[in-house]
Amino acid sequence: MAKIERFEDLKCWQEARKLVKMVYQATNEGAFAKDYDMRSQIRRAAISTMNNIAEGFGRYSRKEFIRFLEMSFTSANEVKSICYAAIDITYLTEENANQIQGKAEEVKALNLGLIRYLKNKKPTA
């Protein structure tokens, strides 16, 4: 496994960045672009998914990093949930929402894998 020296090296952050791009592209079109509140909410959730990984990486303890990864995980759930509302009010097609939700699931899985790794990692001397 390659050594992780920067948050940009983390696969979960890289995929969260892609999630942000997908959300911004989807919310720049049609009725979604005109609904400031919902557009802002899903964008903030997506950005939170990415930024919490970066912020946690910069913290001084493993426990804090895990806490921020958990916040990223819940923000990805928020993105998924908003997608359902966006489908229901026809802001997103099911296909587009499924792509965003799939990326959110991927970020969640990567975060969970990193959380498990950090919880099981032996302290260094």
Question: How would you sum up this structure, described in words?
Answer:
The protein is mainly α and 125 residues long. The chain has one domain: Up-down Bundle (de novo design (two linked rop proteins)), CATH 1.20.1440. Helix content is 78%, strand content 0%. The model has no long low-confidence stretch (mean pLDDT 95).
Please provide a brief summary of the model.
This protein is mostly helical and 125 residues long.
| Overall CATH class | Mainly Alpha
Q: Number of folding domains?
A: 1
Poorly predicted segments: none
Q: What's the SSE pattern? A: HHHHH
Assembly level: single chain
Separation of termini?
Answer: 20 Å
Backbone CA Rg: 16 Å
Number of helices, where a helix is a run of at least 4 consecutive DSSP H or I residues: 5
Notable features of this structure?
125 residues; mainly alpha; de novo design (two linked rop proteins)
Layout of helices and strands, plus pairs?
Layout: H1 11-27, H2 30-34, H3 36-57, H4 62-88, H5 94-120
Helix pairs in contact: 1-3, 1-5, 3-4, 4-5
